[in-house]
């Protein structure tokens, strides 16, 4: 069953077009990789689908509702509950411990502090970093930080996770370990994933790959000029 649909999505920055009429669907529990060369519009597409950016034209429907018509507050609420967002550098809050970072989405959604911490500890344990619960990001390696960031993206058990180059700041071994753990978790809970990457080994974890070139879907699937 289709969960998320983008139709004829366009987006420009000033006079520079970033997306030129993108069509995309994501099914329930499906992992879709969006690949292509740098500057082709991958991150812009993900940000539009997640409601972080508003598309200039086109339609983005989640569970058959046009979220492009929603207010910023409504889209922010969606990202705290049914969407999870994961960035390349994790973007953990440096002043908070690992457990506090992971608990943050639950606290923002109205959970009690004790309940949120308990859930955070469960997810930190799933990603093998429970021993870091009371450490701040500055005391962690890059791989440890990203495991905490994945736990934070999944702690609300979202319907869709948007992952923007989630392993781009890691070496190959750490990257594949982090992504492998994430894929196992989302498969278990039936979460859909939109995964932006330029790395073929990472894209191979997806069920399906969409290649962009110059802001449009590349029908050749190569991402380079024929």
From TrEMBL:
Stored Pfam families: ABC_tran
Keyword terms, alphabetized: ATP-binding, Nucleotide-binding, Transport
Membrane-spanning residues: none
InterPro entries xref list: AAA+_ATPase, ABC_transporter-like_ATP-bd, ABC_transpr_LolD-like, MacB-like_ATP-bd, P-loop_NTPase
A GO CC annotation given for this chain: plasma membrane
Single GO term (MF): ATP hydrolysis activity
Domain ABC transporter stretches: 4-225
Protein name: ABC transporter ATP-binding protein
Species annotation: Actinoplanes aureus
Organism ancestry: Bacteria, Bacillati, Actinomycetota, Actinomycetes, Micromonosporales
């Amino acid at each position: 069953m289709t969960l998320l649909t983008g139709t004829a999505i366009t987006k420009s920055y000033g006079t520079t077009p970033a997306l030129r009429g993108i069509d995309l669907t994501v099914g329930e529990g499906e992992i879709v990789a969006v690949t292509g060369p740098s500057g082709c519009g991958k991150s812009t597409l993900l940000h539009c689908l997640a409601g972080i950016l508003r598309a200039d034209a086109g339609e983005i429907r989640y569970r058959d509702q046009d979220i492009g018509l929603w207010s910023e507050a409504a889209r922010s609420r969606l990202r705290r509950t049914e969407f999870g967002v994961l960035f390349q550098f994790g973007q953990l809050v440096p002043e908070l411990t690992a457990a506090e970072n992971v608990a943050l989405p639950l606290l923002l959604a109205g959970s009690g502090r004790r309940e949120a911490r308990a859930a955070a500890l469960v997810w930190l344990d799933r990603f093998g970093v429970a021993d870091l619960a009371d450490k701040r990001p500055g005391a962690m390696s890059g791989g440890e930080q990203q495991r905490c960031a994945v736990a934070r993206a999944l702690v609300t058990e979202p319907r869709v996770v948007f992952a923007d180059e989630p392993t781009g700041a890691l070496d190959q071994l750490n990257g594949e370990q982090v992504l492998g753990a994430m894929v196992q978790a989302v498969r278990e809970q039936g979460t859909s994933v939109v995964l932006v990457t330029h790395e073929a080994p990472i894209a191979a974890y997806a069920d399906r790959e969409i290649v962009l070139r110059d802001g449009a879907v590349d029908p050749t699937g190569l991402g380079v000029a024929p």
